[in-house]
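Below is how a single chain appears once it has passed through the pipeline. First comes the sequence as given, then the structure the pipeline wrote out for it. We keep one example in the README because the format questions we get most often are answered faster by looking than by reading.
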Amino acid sequence: MSVMWKGRNVVLASGSPRRRELLAQVGMEPEIVPSLVEECTEETEPDLMVMELSRIKAEDVASRCPEGTLVIGADTMVAVDKEVLGKPGTPERAAEMIEKLQGRAHQVYTGVTLLLVEPGGCLHGTTFVEKTDVYVYPMTDEEIRDYAGCGEPLDKAGAYGIQGRFAVYIRKIDGDYDNVVGLPLGRLYHELKNLTEDDREDD
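Resulting structure:
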């Protein structure tokens, strides 16, 4: 995989450094064009929310891309008992979120939209969602405060980064690890193959 995919320029509709690093891990270095639209949805179920938001981001960026571009849009959410936990922004809010996650399981959902920009600006693509169950060890109040105050969780959904200092509190996961980081690479690769093969058959 490279910056080109099946002869098409690849654009990532996200400014997330973690998604960029994941794609670089498998040899894909797309152009980074973050979406400018407001991220809002009327969906209430986490899986439907991330799919819609990934589609909104991808469509916004694709509308500004030339014919032949392949756009990847993504959105990740953490949910516990179907309550969505966003980015905390403050250590106090991070501590509140981690308290809800410690000692139990929660879910991480990533919605991904892949769009091909076709002649005339028409868009052809697919949207999917991947879910991973994450189990966290019980944590003491001191451990929660220390992690919440370290700065790492402030810009991360659910107030933690599985690839960072919080790794010591992860008991196990059921599903795709990369999905928790921000992009399910295995599923993404196979969906890309299917999409580009379908597009070639339509030519």
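The CA atoms of residues 11 and 71 lie 5 Å apart.

See the next section for the split statistics.
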